[in-house]
Amino acid sequence: LQLHHSGRYHCTGRMVAEWRESEWVTVTVCRVPLSGVSLSAQPPGGQVALGDSLVLSCMVYMGTGALSFSWHREGSGAPLGISPCLELNHIGENDSSQYRCRLSDGDSVA
């Protein structure tokens, strides 16, 4: 559901040769704020050997709206990626750092 789906709804159906209508119902779609954002790593714990790959995944338990993701490395301003998963291939010594996923629904950030 999207916010624009709020409104009044009813259904119409045909029984034998007669059309019938249901009562109207009002539907109100509300935003659910982002909550329960978590990050997981594969391999678990984020411990990898030089030259191996690391996959980081960002998940959200609840939230509505169009979600946008961005990945950040401590000390670096530029985003590393904009999808729910970040894959780091051929890990080198310079890749050791703290990584963070930033999630936005257009109204809030987590």
TrEMBL record:
Lineage: superkingdom = Eukaryota
Q: Which InterPro entries match?
A: Ig-like_dom, Ig-like_dom_sf, Ig-like_fold
Protein name according to UniProt:
FCRL2 protein
Q: Which organism is it from?
A: Molothrus ater
Instruction: Provide the Ig-like domain boundaries.
Output: 33-110
